[in-house]
Structures are given as C-alpha cells and as structure tokens.
C-alpha cells in the first residue's frame, strides 16, 4: 500500500491492491456478471443512469420506476451470486469487523459516465462503514458534507485504491464527476468498475 489519505474522514488507501490482485478481482467479477448481468438502471422519474449496475450478495441495490431499494433478486428473477471471497477479505482487512457486508454493488462506468452527489442511506444501520474498491480507469471522486450543498473536495481514485466511509464520514454526500479515459489498461474494454460493500440490515 502506497499511503493513506484522509479527506473529511474518508480514508483512501492508495494502491491497496497490486496489479495481480486487481486482475484476480476482475476475473471474479466476470463470474458475477455472467450470473447477474449488468442493467442500465432508471430513476423513479424514468431517467437512465449513465453507469451500469449489478450486485452480488444477499441483497442487490437497484433503482427503477418504483424507486431505490435493496432486493434479494436480480430483475431477471435469479438470486444474486455470492460476494467473491477475495472481495470479502478486502472488507475484513480494511474494517477489522466480524460482520461482513450483505451487498456488493458493482458499478460500471464507461467514458462519459458519472454519479451525482448522493448519500448512501438505504441501509438499516449507519454504524457500519461503506467500503469502495476502484478498478480500471481513474475517477474524480467528489466529497461533500452531511447536508446537501456547501464546499466540496475532489480526489482521483485510481485502480487498486480502496475508500472507507465510516464513523462521521458515513453519511457524507459523494459522487463521481468523470472518469479519465485511457488512464488504465486493467479492463479490456476500458472504463472503470467500482465495488461498494455495505451492511444492509
Ligand atoms: C457510489 O457512491 O455509488 C459510487 C462511488 C464510486 O464509483 O467511486
Ligand atoms: Mn454512494
């Protein structure tokens, strides 16, 4: 691991995963995506999101015209595949907790994709941290406040970085402004994968 940054209480473990570990993770995720294909989510208002999503674990996070929620099944009716062991071990190592996450949301960003500022607040207990893993092209990650508005700070998340939002940072607004095309050779088709690990209930 290269260094740990701390921005507004968000811990960013730079280069937590080396290249072979990132490649192994991508292989695991290929299996997840075969079992639970990416979908292009739409918001309650019918607007398509620019990221594609799928999940692993007991719950998947979805959004459609009925709104945001966790579901025990992929929209195709199948249960979500299990969270790969390698992913769970990252959670164990960075959180030191006995409780493991129920959901591994997989976001795929292609060129031009972004994620607006939001809070992660569909979980029952905000005492558990959120862990996010970045793979592939770098993303400009924006960190705000616990209320909407106010000054924000941005940081590049590169392939292999792991971010932890826990304690007072658990409910900070955050989002991705853009990804930097060509900044990584990890994913054959380019783009970025982000894994978000959360305890749901
Ligand atoms: C998210 O907060 O849903 C995704 C964050 C990221 O892609 O780094
Ligand atoms: Mn989020």
Architecture overview:
The protein is mainly beta and 201 residues long. It has one domain (3-198): Jelly Rolls (Sandwich). It has helices spanning 19-35, 85-95; strands at residues 3-7, 10-14, 52-57, 60-64, 67-71, 103-109, 115-118, 130-136, 139-143, 153-157, 162-165, 174-179, 192-198. Strands 1-2-11-8-13-6-3 form a seven-stranded antiparallel β-sheet, covered by helices on one side. Strands 7-12-9-10 form a four-stranded antiparallel β-sheet, with no helix packed on it. Strand 1 (3-7) and strand 2 form a beta hairpin. Bound molecules: succinic acid and manganese (II) ion (MN). Succinic acid binds at residues 107, 115, 132, 139, 141, 157, 174, 176, 194, 196.
Proportion in helices: 10-25%
Strand order of the largest sheet: 1-2-11-8-13-6-3
The count of helical stretches stands at 2
Q: Given the helix and strand composition, which structural class is it?
A: mainly beta
**Which ligands, by name, code or SMILES, are bound?**
succinic acid, manganese (II) ion
Count of domain modules: 1
| Biggest sheet details | 7 strands, antiparallel
Mean pLDDT: 97
Corresponding CATH superfamily: Alpha-ketoglutarate-dependent dioxygenase AlkB-like
CATH architecture: Sandwich
Secondary-structure element string: EEHEEEHEEEEEEEE
Radius of gyration: 16 Å
Number of strands: 13
What is the CATH class designation?
A: Mainly Beta
Distance between the termini: 31 Å
Low-pLDDT stretches = none
Instruction: Determine the CATH topology.
Output: Jelly Rolls
Tell me the overall shape.
globular
Q: Beta-strand level of the residues, as a percent range? A: 35-45%
């Amino acid at each position: 691991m290269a260094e740990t940054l701390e921005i507004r209480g968000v811990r960013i473990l730079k280069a937590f995963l080396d290249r072979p570990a990132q490649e192994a993770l991508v292989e695991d995720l290929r299996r997840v995506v075969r079992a639970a294909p990416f979908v292009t989510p739409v918001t309650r208002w019918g607007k398509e999101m620019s990221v594609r999503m799928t999940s692993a674990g007991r719950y998947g996070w979805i959004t459609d015209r009925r709104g945001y929620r966790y579901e025990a099944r992929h929209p195709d009716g199948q249960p979500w595949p299990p969270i790969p062991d390698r992913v769970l071990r990252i959670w164990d190592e960075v959180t030191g907790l006995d409780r493991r996450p129920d959901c591994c949301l997989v976001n795929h960003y292609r060129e031009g994709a972004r994620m607006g500022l939001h809070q992660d607040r569909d979980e029952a207990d905000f005492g558990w941290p959120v862990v996010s893993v970045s793979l592939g092209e770098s993303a400009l990650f924006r960190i705000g406040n616990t209320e909407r508005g106010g000054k924000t700070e941005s940081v590049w998340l590169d392939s292999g970085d792991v971010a932890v939002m826990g304690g007072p940072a658990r409910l900070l607004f955050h989002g991705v402004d853009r990804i930097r095309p060509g900044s990584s050779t990890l994913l054959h088709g380019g783009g970025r994968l982000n894994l978000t690990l959360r305890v749901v209930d």
